Amino acid sequence: ELQILWKFADFPPFLASMRRFMRAHELPRHLRATGCFHSTDISAEVAQRYRSASESQRAWAETPLSHRKAVVTRFGEILKSKCADLAEILTKDMGKPLAAAKGEISATPGRIKYFVEHVEKVTRDEVVRKSDKREERLVWEPLGVVACISAWNYPYFVGSNVYVPALLTGNSVLYKPSEHSLESGKRMEETLLEAGLPQGVFQCVAGGPSAGEALLSQPIDGLFFTGSVKTGMAIKRALVHRNIPVQLELGGKDAAYVMPDLKQSDGNLAYIHNAAESLGDGAMYNTGQGCCSIERIYVHEDVYEPFVDKLVDVVSKFRVGNPMQEGVQLGPLCLSTAPDFLERQIADAVAGGATVLCGGSKMDGNFFQPTVLVNVDQGMSVMQDESFGPIVCVSRVSSDDAAIEMMNDSQYGLTAAVYGMDRIRAERILEKVQTGTAYFNCCDWVSPYLPWTGRQNSGIGGTCGESGIRAFVRPKAYHFRSV
């Protein structure tokens, strides 16, 4: 039987150090477990901003695509050159470790490059049929003024997946960053203006829920939201009578399956250990605050014990602390309510027979110990409700079919991963799993080349890929006939 492990070395001195640091520095409020940066709510100005966006959109749409591409490319170049400063702002905004913040911002120009290189192909006018007397042509036109209500966990990735293709296709954007990453949102607007974007084409609408409500009341031509299921469904209901494109990128309860063929006949555990390391990182990266973070792992009984042993070893070694310090891997949770929610999930699971192998408790401030749970039941909250924190649950299964059934037992359908040696077998499994993205021997990754979509309560519509560009244009059919 697996032994309960606690590997938080020098834990009391660490807490004392953090308390001294918090007293000595003006830290963002979320580091004291009380919320986030406050900023002036400008919801009263939203109507004026919409008018400005509408007026500027017409001229922007008439701007040659080559110029729009040049502006957006320059935006990516400035992000790269200012990465260090912007990363520090992002870390202070929402608590992401500084190294991870730098990684997000430095990788954003590569995503921008995809959209710049593919927008012309996707939106090119096309003569679909032509004869001596008739011509039929397909033209793609911008939606107009689009609203983007974005997320705090990956503001540069999530935001640019929407506003970059929107701008390239000739739309103007009203961008509402999360109230937990306001300063980063403002820097995006400043950087786009520095890159040469005309005034009014991209505007940051800063504020809380009231600003979002004011945004929805404007005659926008499309709404692109990333956030919780609850808020996404409320937005959907609010806009149901408008007949405009609505895209909702919501939550996930992402699952993985570890196949038995990772077990080698000579007893070598390398492949099993590699899977545990990959899935441990996929569960804990960004302190588990990702819609595609791994939260459920189903492990075939033939490899269960060595996999769990290694996973606990990996997870218990993650370094928790001040996100501004080098070497820290897990920062504070962004939301002040998150630690209590995670503790309730764990307490409920333990009461139902689950076992905590490492972690399991909140720490001073808004920190939470990286946690592995086993002996979990499929009906527990920790197996059904999105945790959005550094918790991963492991369940033993006896067959591929059992794993498929349990992976599909969810209100969500964002991603699923299979780890093993036999790709054909893995593909057959993944074909039966109801998710928008499927991984083999990898997880927790979004490629700009492929659509990012969900099933069920993970959302409607999608970003990235060619479809993520076409989401910001609408077709117009031309019929020409000679006299």
From TrEMBL:
Concerning SUPFAM superfamilies, the annotation shows: ALDH-like
One function term, GO molecular function aspect: oxidoreductase activity, acting on the aldehyde or oxo group of donors, NAD or NADP as acceptor
Q: Name one Pfam family in it.
A: Aldedh
Active-site residues are 249
Q: Which domain of life is it from?
A: Eukaryota
Q: Does the keyword Oxidoreductase apply?
A: yes
All copies of domain Aldehyde dehydrogenase, residue ranges: 44-476
Q: Does the keyword Aminoacyl-tRNA synthetase apply?
A: no
**Keywords in UniProt for this one?**
Oxidoreductase
The family this protein is said to belong to:
Belongs to the aldehyde dehydrogenase family.
- What is the official name of this protein in its record? Aldehyde dehydrogenase domain-containing protein
